[in-house]
Write the structure tokens for this entry.
Amino acid sequence: MCTMYCPRPVVDAYNERLEITRAPHIDYAQAIPSSYYIDAKACLRVNFETCNLCAQTCTAGAIDFSQKPKNLELEVGAVVLTPGFGRVDSSVLEKFGYGKYPDVLTAFEFERLTCASGPTEGHIVRPSDNRPPRKIAFLQCIGSRDETCGNGYCSSVCCMYAIKEASVAKEHEPDLDVSIFFMDVRTQGKGFDDARKRAQEKYGINVIRARVPRVDQVDGRLALTWTTDDGKHHSGIFDMVVLSVGLESPEDAEALSKIADIKLNNYNFCSTRVDSPLSTSRDGVFVAGAFQGPKDIPESVTQASGVAAIASELLAEARNSQTVSITYPEENKALEEQEPRIGIFVCHCGVNIAGVVDVKAVRDYAASLPGVVLYEDPLYSCSQDALKGIAEKIRDNNLNRVVIAACSPRTHEPLFQETLRSVGLNPALVEMANIRDQCAWVHAQEPEAATEKAKDLVRMAAAKARLLTPLEQPTVDVTPGALVLGGGAAGMSAALSIADQGYSVTIVEKSRHLGGNLRRLQWTTDGQDARKVMEDMISSVESHPGIEVLTGSTVEAISGYVGNFTSTVSQGKKNRLINHGVTVIATGAREYKPRSYAYGESTRIVTQLELEEKLARGKSFLKNARNIVMIQCVGSRGDDMSHCSRLCCTQAVKNALKLKELKPDCRIYILYRDMRTYGFHEDAYREAREKGVIFLRYSTDKKPQVIKQARGIKVRAFDRLLGEEIEIPANLVVLSAGIAPGDNQELSKILKAPLTPEGFFLEAHAKLRPVEIAVDGVYLCGLAHGPKSLEESVAQAKAAAAKATIPLAKGKVAVAPIVSHVDQDACIGCGICESLCPFNAIRLSKVGKRKKAQTITASCKGCGICASHCPTIAISMGGFTDQAIMAQIHAFSGRQCDEG
Amino acid sequence: MIVTEAARQLLEDCGVDRERLALEWASAAEAPRFVELITGYVSRIREKGPLGSGPDEIPADVVGRRLKAAVKAAGARKPRTLLGKLAKKMAKEGDYSRDAISKGVKAKVFPAMRSVRIATEVGMILEEGPADLKKLCSDTGASAEELEKILAPMLKKGQISRKKDSFSLSS
Amino acid sequence: MAKENAVTKENEMTQEGFDPKILGFFCHWCCYAAADSAGVSRYQYPPNVRVIRVMCTGRIDARFVIEAFRCGADGVFTGG
């Protein structure tokens, strides 16, 4: 109402100024807090004491102009800085015609254009004439890797976001011609290289390796010229140019650094050390997210969890001293037992669902289903105000069953279950129909079929809802200790954090020493002595009273569930049982053992880690070295393993600089595919080039060759600028061998933890749950999750510790009520269920004279093998009863289908 | 896997192409594989045509009764016990090859499922009126010899009665 | 490109011919999750499958499958 009546138009900053809104507005429907706010700069009442329309029209009386700013004083134990990133200055963008030519957009603006709830509802049009463009160019490294604007670093995220935006655009407009101009394609994130490959293959996105210096306008279109690395000049005309702008330090970084009394680095980001990436220069003040350096969502989320762990370490003693617990109204059992009164909420999900599925038609169809007394279509049913609305409607209409036709129960069911609890209904009385992931998103080209499918899914959900019954919400006590698998940098960091938070930790390390891969490193990327970093860590671990270290040990079996695991640890000949509440996987990875480039044929062909070990023993082997050749992507990026190993480019540059320092007159070649010295590592790359390290790019069809001869080694490589093959007599060949997953298969089986196709452990959600896995109570960090730097491993270990401490601190965990239930009268005690249960969660015991099966609620995962194999159909599954599934099957048919 | 195989054999027994029931695996990480599987499966079913239209399939209007009896058979205690025992045995032996499962189900579970299915169907047919052995044979797809074996205990228990060639439900 | 052509072809067939009704039993942890992920990635596939979520394919009883055919399914897809 306030937005509607406000006479004052303002540009919509959330939509990148592409749209107009009013002084009182909400940025987007799911914003938190989900209330409207007034742009004080624009408001007539605030600035000129006129108007007041909004306050008069607000029926809730929620606008109060008499409020004044207040200063608050808070007593806190730790301060966390998460201001995010700033924008690249517009003067940088102007060089590329931004502001001058309307069809030059920033990637942020383009993102809003591609967004279904954005200003053009997802239609990509040129701002100049509102017509769809046919040819789009993305220019990378705008305001990144560019010393002329003071940003020498790489922004790390733009390559991937450009590929994502280009893919979304192609999906929307298959005939679009999209080119992306890269210097290097830096998709070093987990799974990113695969996504890039798919984008290139599936959508035919052109990858051009060149930096475009400027943008000109010719006849209303945009002209680009560029030079490729073979020295050739090119030009092209485009309808739209998207500038992939980088991430800068926040605008108020300097002010913030003064207030918080912390040091900034030379780019005005928060200064941190590799071994403590979340600590600022001031004790008690911590940092997470892009202010610590440019990074993408998973890493920001990881750091955020990590910083929570550090704060929690400091505040361990004060735990639970200021907590407030939620109380729920008592369950209305009488209402639950009444005939089903179903409320169906068909969600628009903005345009995510409504853009394809005819939501109103589905809602009206729902009205015709038996037992339905309420049917509505909220815009975003998961937004805070919609949830409140659903709660009110449940109460006002005496609903006792709820169907939410929206997205996936895997992500959103708990939210709606909570809503039911808040109004005194058992959480098991809600059923979801996934009409977003299973209809709108996957049948986007067939709106009618998608709508029909949505109706069917709603009908099936309603049929099941009628038969839902209230379920008990059991809880079990938690063993207050953690088992950390792996004693490398990640395992030790996680163990220290959990122990510092007041819980006991056992580290199980396969080898005889703590340290893991860190043991082989000589110096860190920020120039610290890696051995010292490791030794400090080891001594902290060993002297910690809360940590027990078992070296030379492996885990043979893990049984139980979150809160109550029992592990069998084998220490050579003897086995030991350990009870623990949570498990942290930090088993690391190993250096890939090259199978090509004549590796193993000469002591002068080594891997980067072997080079570091050699250097640690002295530099005499460099005495006669005139030419040193490094080869990147050995084993990685489709060479043998499909993934990018993320670290090797930085490691090669770091080692090249070290070699230059030790032997300035030797010539160093680095043969690479894309130099992926992301973030501040770019400085080292630039330094290496300045110091004369020669970088030659190779493509996979012209891979370098290493030829071992009677007298020395020859490397053959293709020089793109010369356009011919060159031969380098090499005194030393250093192979940047990638990171291969450890032997994770066995552990994956023991823990029932899924692996990625590459063999690393798979996180529960790539972006939102980066340190959890599909199994509750098991957390993941370090190289076991995928290639990453020491700094990233440490941050991730802290994050895993933060997540692992949640159940430990709660002291109790709720068990999902999907467990099996045995009808003791029908059970004949045959024992088939006991022998088939994969979780040992059902056992025979004597009841009276006969043996009867009984569920061990806390172990049961609800798989239902017992139920489907029970001869007398005596076992039913919580939330998935035979009757409910049969009802869904009958509803599926859509016609009368008498009970079979 | 064992349950699926049992269901497939029972479907085949009812005159439904067993390949209409698919069992596939796609992990949480394998969206592309999932899409391939679904797309492939839908197009295979499309080629097969509607239920009952396949070369070895019984027309859809007839197959209804047979499937109804099959559901009963799949829920009956004896075949379920045999299925459970087989699953137990196979879990112990650890051989889950396609062949082993198929053979195991065929030998240990299928005969019981089939006979319950036929017995149930006989009951359903007779509910509509008396019928002779020939009609029962052609309606259930059982051989005369097989049917005699199934009818004998039904007669003995007095569930059905026989007048000359004609069988009818005991009232 | 080939994939897109295949999809169009299928659409044409839909208009002319037989559009099967298929019931899917999807495991919560595997196939259901893969289907979610396919949604998030906006992969497109034919709209013929209606899904019943189960916590594991082990839940699937032969009765369910046969009942589905009895109730008019042209196919049943169980996905672990």
